[in-house]
Specification:
Distance between the termini: 57 Å
Radius of gyration: 23 Å
Shape: globular
CATH superfamily of the largest domain: NAD(P)-binding Rossmann-like Domain
CATH architecture of the largest domain: 3-Layer(aba) Sandwich
Strand content: 5-15%
Largest sheet: 6 strands, mixed
Number of domains: 2
Length: about 400
């Protein structure tokens, strides 16, 4: 019976090339040393390995030289917010984490190991990641739902002395800032002159808002499903209260659609759809970043009738806001520099580096580089490493 089931499954998936790519998983662990003799065996394992372990026990920093840990990233998820699929659980999230590990290898030359956890409990996740951290040089948190992701990242950053980053927050934010820097150049504006409406107060929305504030954007209104966050709202989470305290200086209390009237930038990070009338009400030469995937909140063709620059999360359209532009170089730069954490300044440096790859070629349909542009990870790694050394947070 098992053989029949296998053949039926093979037939069922045979016409979809995605399944062929994932057959048997996408990763292996490959030794860097061969074992061709008893002498090789004695050095690779016992008794030779005991001398190395004893040296590390006496001087723990030697692990950075004599183990793989400093050059390996753990890609950790609980499967609670995977892509646009939602809470699909750890096993179903594993192909995504394997894919993330492939991107680390391809674009940054870093090994990465997928770790999926069969729990959604914050304390358990924090304890689990902290317990395995000695095996790794960095922790990439992935596809963990808000608001738990904020606490998990913050606690792990406090506990560990290696780089920790929740990519759904900060990878998105870094690339959004890079794209907005160049989009502002296209329309001849400064970041500080732009009025921004952020649709979505989840992981990406919060991180994008914070990095835009740090980059000098002064007028930001953030909306969730109940409308714009403002001081009169009740039942706010601590994260949303922070947004109330630091955004919406005008005290706008209406809907997201109403807030778009006269706005310079729409940043969609929530799904749903935005009516044409709302985009039409925005300021002349406006900027629309509609990042829900696969279906943007704002139809790109419609947006192009009103906006000077349009970006999406799709690979088949210009100006793809793709996290792969950020996270490989961020971790590579932080790890190479021996950074103990990833700071806000390092994220800003990464965004500047991404924007700089476009350089003088910037135009309405080219505000961020292609995800396949090999210059990006190198530029980001150099900028992030330099920033870490300047901040003196390296080992």
């Amino acid at each position: 019976m098992g053989g029949n089931q296998g053949s039926e499954q093979g037939d069922r998936f045979a016409d979809d090339p995605a399944f062929a790519v994932h057959e048997g998983g996408k990763l292996t662990v490959t030794p860097t040393r061969s074992i061709d003799s008893i002498a090789d065996l004695a050095l690779t394992y016992t008794p030779g390995v005991a001398r190395v372990s004893s040296a590390i026990a006496a001087e723990p920093e030697l692990a950075r030289r004599f183990t793989w840990a400093p050059r390996v990233v753990a890609v950790v998820s609980d499967g609670s917010a995977v892509l646009g699929l939602g809470n699909i659980g750890p096993a179903a999230s594993l192909p995504v984490m394997e894919g993330k590990a492939c991107l680390f290898s391809e674009f940054a030359g870093l090994s990465a190991v997928p770790i999926v956890l069969a729990t959604n409990d914050v304390d358990t996740i924090v304890a689990s990641v902290a317990a395995i951290a000695p095996s790794f040089g960095g922790i990439n948190l992935e596809d963990i739902s808000a608001p738990r992701c904020f606490e998990i990242e913050a606690r792990l950053r406090d506990l560990l002395d290696i780089p920790v980053m929740h990519d759904d927050q900060h990878g998105t934010a870094i690339v959004v800032l890079a794209a907005l820097r160049n989009a502002a150049k296209v329309v001849g504006r400064e970041l500080s002159d732009l009025r921004v409406v952020v649709a979505g107060a989840g992981a990406a929305g919060v991180a994008c808002t914070k990095i835009l504030l740090g980059a000098g954007v002064e007028e930001i209104a953030v909306a969730d499903s109940q409308g714009v966050l403002h001081a009169g709202r009740g039942d706010l989470t601590p994260t949303k209260q922070w947004l109330v305290d630091h955004t919406n200086r005008a005290g706008f209390a209406g809907t997201m659609v109403s807030a778009l009237e006269g706005a310079d930038v729409y940043l969609g990070l929530s799904g749903g759809s935005v009516p044409e009338s709302a985009i039409a009400s925005m300021a002349p030469n406006c900027i629309v970043f509609s990042l829900a995937n696969p279906t943007p909140e704002v139809d790109p063709e419609m947006a192009a009738r009103y906006a000077a620059v349009v970006a999406t999360g799709r690979s088949d359209l210009p100006n793809q806001i793709n996290n792969v532009l950020a996270f490989p170089g961020v971790f590579r730069g932080a790890i190479d520099a021996g950074a103990r954490s990833i700071t806000e300044e390092m994220k800003l440096a990464a965004a500047d580096a991404i924007a700089g790859v476009v350089g003088d070629e910037v135009r309405a349909d080219y505000v961020v580089p292609s995800p396949l542009d090999r210059r990006v990870a190198v530029a980001v790694a150099e900028a992030v490493g330099a920033c870490a050394r300047e901040q003196r947070i390296t080992r």
